[in-house]
């Protein structure tokens, strides 16, 4: 099937169809409630194109900035080699596979979704992946603050995150072989694990429970670990450590250790320099 489509619910409830080289102009919800659809090099210009859908494949094409809130409540969708310029894409959707996707306006994207597998994904925008669960990212680049707030059971590998307030209120997040830069990383997290990562953060990793950092390099990082339980092995220089509540911290170099006995029990944390 090919064509230029307009009007609200232009192809509502479509099933078992391939659509290629087509443009969806004005008109909300053009493919709402559709199933078993392959979209090849299609362009979406307007809002809510793929709501309540099942078994969707998107290969190439473009979601314009007007196609905001584009994919909500959808199950089993694969998107590859596609540009998604619209914000608020993917909400309360599940079984999502993303490959070679670019999201230049990824504000409030992937909210409360589950079972996402993403590789070679580039995203720019604040509040990315709020409440996401049971998901994996590899070769992922994110520029945007407040990412992964409240996320659970997440693995991120070989990625770069430039994100203030990343990983707040998370549970069971593991980041491997990645670069993370941003203030206040990982506050209120439970079981946040960083392995072979490079980290730059002002006042990062505070109020964290069971924080683990294995063979991580820190740069320009100060006032770290306040009121956190920590097991960290670090290379590079930590500018300052402030009032950790328990655990062990091994660092190549430490500029300052701030320990206030009226606020924490210093004996509960072992800090080793060198």
Q: What is the H-and-E element order? A: EEEEEEEEEEEEEEEEEEEEEEEEE
What's the domain count? 1
Q: What's the count of strands?
A: 25
Radius of gyration: 22 Å
**Major sheet details:** 20 strands, parallel
Describe this structure in words.
The chain is mainly beta. The chain has one domain (48-61, 71-273). It has no helices and 25 strands. It has strands spanning 4-5, 15-20, 23-24, 35-40, 43-44, 54-59, 62-63, 75-80, 83-84, 94-99, 102-103, 114-119, 122-124, 133-138, 141-143, 152-157, 160-162, 171-176, 179-181, 190-195, 198-200, 211-221, 229-242, 246-258, 269-273. The strands form 2 sheets. It has a 20-stranded parallel beta sheet that branches. The model has no long low-confidence stretch (mean pLDDT 97).
What's this model, at a glance?
This protein is mainly β and 274 residues long.
What are the SSEs and their pairings?
Blueprint: E1 4-5, E2 15-20, E3 23-24, E4 35-40, E5 43-44, E6 54-59, E7 62-63, E8 75-80, E9 83-84, E10 94-99, E11 102-103, E12 114-119, E13 122-124, E14 133-138, E15 141-143, E16 152-157, E17 160-162, E18 171-176, E19 179-181, E20 190-195, E21 198-200, E22 211-221, E23 229-242, E24 246-258, E25 269-273
Parallel strand pairs: 1-3, 2-4, 3-5, 4-6, 5-7, 6-8, 7-9, 8-10, 10-12, 11-13, 12-14, 13-15, 14-16, 15-17, 16-18, 17-19, 18-20, 19-21, 20-22, 21-22, 22-23, 23-24, 24-25
